[in-house]
Design goal:
mainly beta, globular, disordered N terminus
Length: about 450
């Protein structure tokens, strides 16, 4: 039985002092002028593990650095140790060109818990701009780091943080001609990967529910391709329904009450919407064309999907209230796998042109197309909370009997700062989906 991966804990803001001089990162321009951040060694109180203290500091720095928006000041360059509650000597920190100073104190509490306090200072403005206190079980110390990094990121960018999140994906092992496909989950930085399915069942297309309690996925259980759900707390799996045909490409609605999916009937593929409470099925697309890859808009009023109704594969928008369908892609090549960003400003897509696959974004009207990455085979873009970054997978071309390798990669909306999310040795990652913020 699958047990909940992370312990739930509470945290609260102690106080936040407004800044007089605005210290902000331009996230659209990217990392042209990254902000330099100095993170002090943590103060510790009580029975605190030295490994935990160092790990939290390291994870906070790694999270911030991974964005490409911040430069982490070397520990060897730090000029002084400033105790919590004391005013830093800003001249010393200015001398090493640190723009932000982070102080933290980790305390051991009763009941196997940690309390983490941290302050964030604007060095040039000579003022404190953030202060929070977090409480978690010692087993969840790594989550403390991600939440702390989220708070710093949000204060400095004004955007929603995405470090305290997870990624569900399909982990492939074995040779090309006999691949095992298992559903797996990990933190967004690749830590703590664990399997959610066994080797006996072929699975595909996992996606989170908005409340992070459920994953919907395609399973070939008993060689019968059907949509199932997995309860992340209990491990219980349920078949979605008896639809009288092969169904695939499931996606939750933004409110979690419905699941859109593709259903093949009489050789024709259409998109349907399944109401979880009433267990009723509503057909959304019609005609003789192939329609698949549904993705809801954040307000749940529209749906992006791809269809060959125009002659080749393109992206269309369906108004769920009126039923009106509008084509939005007209560029060279074929378009597929649309994914609406959480803020509604972009639709990510896969594009195939001139024997090359691309990951790109555009606005919901199909304008301002921007290619973020290209390669031999890449697909399945999925958004991080805040709509700053995407995750996707890329497969390397195989020659003869050489093993074909698939990587899970992340890229920001500027097309900069592409990096691999490290997986355990021997595991290829495909079809990643980024979670909402953890509860």
């Amino acid at each position: 039985m699958f047990k909940k991966f992370l312990t739930v804990f509470s945290f609260m803001a102690v106080f936040v002092l407004p800044a007089h001089a605005e210290l902000k990162v331009d996230i659209i321009a990217g990392a042209a002028n990254p902000i330099s951040v100095a993170v002090q060694k943590f103060e510790t109180v009580g029975n605190v593990s030295a490994e935990d203290s160092a790990m939290i500091r390291e994870v906070v720095e790694a999270d911030l650095k991974s964005t490409g928006l911040f430069r982490i000041v070397s520990h060897d360059a730090l000029p002084e140790f400033v105790e919590m509650g004391k005013l830093p000597d800003f001249k010393l920190w200015n001398a090493i060109k640190a723009q932000v100073l982070v102080q933290a104190k980790l305390s051991a509490e009763s009941g196997g818990k940690y309390s983490l306090e941290f302050y964030v200072w604007d060095v040039n403005g000579k003022e404190q701009i953030e202060a929070q206190s977090l409480v978690a079980s010692k087993k969840s110390a790594r989550r403390l780091a991600h939440i702390m990094a989220d708070a710093i990121y949000e204060r400095l960018t004004g955007e929603i943080g995405y470090f305290d999140t997870q990624i569900v994906f399909i982990a492939e092992t074995g040779p090309i001609h006999n691949r095992k496909k298992r559903m797996a989950i990990m933190d967004q930085d690749g830590y703590g990967m664990r399997y959610l399915s066994d080797e006996k069942t072929f699975v595909m297309s996992p996606h989170f529910s908005p409340n992070m309690q459920t994953i919907v996925f395609l399973s070939y259980y008993n060689n019968d391709p059907m949509v199932w759900t997995l309860d992340l707390e209990t491990g219980e799996q349920r078949r979605l329904g008896q639809f009288g045909g092969m169904n695939f490409a499931p996606r939750f609605s933004p409110d979690g009450t419905k699941i859109a999916l593709s259903l093949v009937k009489n050789g024709i593929t259409h998109i349907y919407e399944y109401d979880i409470e009433t267990k009723s099925l509503r057909q959304l697309t019609f005609g003789s064309s192939l329609n698949t890859s549904p993705s809801y808009s954040p307000d749940g009023k529209k749906m992006a999907f791809n269809s060959d109704r125009s002659g080749n594969q393109q992206i269309f928008i369906l108004d769920l209230e009126t039923g009106k369908v509008e084509r939005i892609t007209y560029g060279a090549g074929r378009y597929a796998t649309p994914a609406w960003s959480p803020d509604g400003q972009f639709i990510a897509f896969t594009k195939i042109a001139d024997d090359t696959f691309y990951i790109g974004i555009m606005d919901p009207r199909g304008r301002n197309e921007k290619i973020l990455a290209g390669g031999w085979y890449m697909e399945a873009p999925s958004w991080a909370p805040g709509s700053r970054r995407l995750v996707y997978y890329e497969t390397e071309k195989a020659f003869d009997d050489i093993e074909r390798i698939s990587h899970i990669r992340s890229v920001d909306i500027t097309g900069q700062n592409v990096y691999d999310i490290e997986l355990p040795e021997g595991i290829n990652g495909v079809e990643p989906t980024w979670s909402p913020r953890l509860p």
